[in-house]
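Mos1 transposase HTH domain-containing protein
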Amino acid sequence: MPQPPYSPDLAPCYFFLFPKLKRPMKGRRYATLDEIKTASKEELKKILKNDFLKCFEDWKNRWHNAMERSLEQRYAIKFCVRLGKNATETFQMPQKAFKDDCISRSQYGKWHKAFKEGREEVADEPRSGRPTTARTDENVDRVLEVLRTDHRLNIQQIADTLHMSTFVVHGIVTEDLQMRKVCAKLVPKVLTQDQKELRVFRCQELLDLIENQPDFLNSVVTGDESWMFEYDPESKRQSCAWHTKSSPRPKKARISMSRIKRMIIVFFDIRGIVHWEFVPQGQTVNSAFYLEVLRRLKRRIAHVRTDIKDTVKLHHDNATSHTAFIITNFLARSNTPVIPHPPYSPDLAPCDFFLFPRFKREMKGKHWETVENIQHHVTTFLRSIPVEEFQGAFQAWQTRLRKCIDAGGMYFEEY
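Predicted structure tokens:
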């Protein structure tokens, strides 16, 4: 049986079997390939005969829906037949109008012949559907019982299980039960109670220092490292565009990040960028390399921030290369205090909530072709950030410290 090109929505393996197999395996760790094979076989054995019957019924419905989407083109074919166009002309004209959504040439030929022979009806023959089921108290209880067994079921799955219409199930779930489907909040890590308490303690400690010393943040230099990609796909929000109801929804192919990339290390304070450098290709940011970076940073501070060279305080995260003994020893010998950073807290690191998102947003959706172009663009962008934005970032840092305390150490923003 021929399969339409680029149509996973019409392939039972893609819309039924693989999702059903992978869903229970998501979020679990399998140490070996044998464990993956065993788990896959066990999940396949759990699939009931009734599930396959429903799959093929759904397959028929999907083909039916696909045909309904071609209804507009059938009207165009009928119009061309009325104008006396032959099959070839009929195919060429709508092909220009519908482009990628155009149905196949054989389908055009079939409908052209049908209309030429006198057919008037454009739609397919009507099919018998499932009878409407009332929204009774009994059915509300039935739907609630099914949802209690699995809160991830969708409306179609509930309707199939209870032999009810999707319209009625949707009304029961959203209106009678007052429920809505929400995705799990994506966070950097599921924090333990001790980690939450540590986040609160570190935030309160830093806020107390800021309140007791109004100029405390003026001598703080914060920094981190991050990857810059030759191509980074734009986010879903960035690709949003205003359209009228009649205009087609824009489509975007799924593309991964480019393998061409370069890591950058940046340090800045409340007045702007202090130091940045690109990590050489193939170089790992280990403690030995980071030590040399800090030495260059100290020389740079002595050159561009002479007023704080003896009182500078460093802030960075808890990466292994940042907390190694040779790093802490160097900072202690050079009389450079380190502001403690709570673990798993990118929401409290100015580089992560301000600087990196700020210039990566500008790079998304564009091809930079070479590493040199990436470096040139990043360098130009870093030099163009106004001082007011750095001051705003340090002000936002204080706000985030308070939010973290108010949230009891939990993450307080979306990721």
